[in-house]
What we know:
By secondary structure, the protein is of the alpha/beta class. The chain has helices spanning 21-24, 37-42, 60-74, 85-88, 98-113, 129-133, 140-157, 170-180, 193-213, 236-256, 261-266, 280-284, 343-357, 383-401, 444-457, and strands at residues 14-18, 78-82, 117-123, 163-168, 219-223, 290-294, 300-302, 327-329, 361-365, 406-412, 431-433, 440-442.
Amino acid sequence: MSTPSRLPDGSTLELGTATASYQVEGATGEDGRGPSIWDTFTSRPGTVTDASDGTTACDSYHRWAEDADLVAGLGVQWYRFSIAWPRVLPEGRGRVETRGLDYYDRLVDGLLERGVKPTATLYHWDLPQPLEDAGGWLERGTAEAFADYAEVVHERLGDRVGLWATHNEPWCSAYLGYAAGVHAPGRREGGAAHRAAHHLVLGHALAAERMRAAGARDVGIVLNLAPVWPERPEAADVADGVDAIRNRVWLDPLVDGAYDDGLLRVAPELADPELVRDGDLALAQGSADWIGINYYTPVRPDVPDPARAEGQEHPEGGAYPGVAPFELAVREPRTDIGWEIDASGLEELLVETHRRTSLPLLVMENGAACADDRVEDGRVDDQDRIGYLRDHLGATDAARAAGADVRAYLVWTLLDNFEWAYGYTKTFGLVHIDPADQTRTPKASYDWLAGVARERAEP
Ligand code: FCB
């Protein structure tokens, strides 16, 4: 039996906010949760700026009701959260831990009771460690296990969660995780990371097939596609390689059921019939009902700077295996995490992705790390964040006006949380968290978003 469509219809731009399991839940050892690659990675010295981890994070595993109240208080339509695979299947496959599912059941019901629509992401990077021990995303078996996991979760929540995302930012999983090594599992395998990319595409397609067979509608994937702007004409070639790995490796199979020739030149691994088996790409084609876009900053490839010492490359430079050495130029102004601010990149990306895919688009993450996140007299006056969000919401409206089918805009993120390799040193939240006692203090940006939601709700 098919559930009714819960995809926003596009008549207005719906609003929301997003989080991810490992970044907010904490309680990593509770209720039978198994270890994930992020538990392992963070336990290794030198992987996280402040040597922190997600053991406590925002303690949302226990404080979910308070967090759901905060979302409801914003008056937005959507809350995007992710499900921790190792809570549901502690060994990655096989035995189901119902206490893990019970948690998401409570959260989903709690959101619905408060008038907030839940959208769940199945994989926001917390792979069960036993699957990594068996080779992780370099192995086809991980894609197959992912489809089984998707089916288990859908069976429990599919009657109430209508809008499903398989992966969040598979570029990060494949290339930051298996090439640059700056995200879990922290491996530097060069071109083998393209194998991970294919298995992520395949995992998405297998999961979508399985969930649709069980009645799901609206199964999408969330991509951190990027506008790729060569810094000068000589960088055109490397920019094409960057575009191939950042954008086309995901969109081509989903839209065309193929990997294009330019991509195969930088990623010859994807031409291996043992890896890309008959039927894989046909299954991927048409497997997304919508595309989620996460946008923070444009990408500006540049020719290498000969003055730069070897080993001093940009931390993401290693994340494009097969592309000739290049630099990433970053212009001003920048956010506190060093990412260039340019809202026109979001407008361009939405218009271009609409042209490329004709699929409904949802901005599933957009936000800023800001230095003005201090609590003074019980308030956080984060005007920089408000400016960033206002400009990017405006860019989203402009893309709609230009004909792009954009249906939602979600702010990253509800709470200051564990920002991966930056630990707790970079904050993106609408709500400040005091790490000492977990006190939640809504920032000025929270009030701003609530005001926007109110204005837009008026007839
Ligand atoms: C994205 C991630 C999200 C968060 C933001 C800042 O790449 O999906 O979890 O870390 O960046």
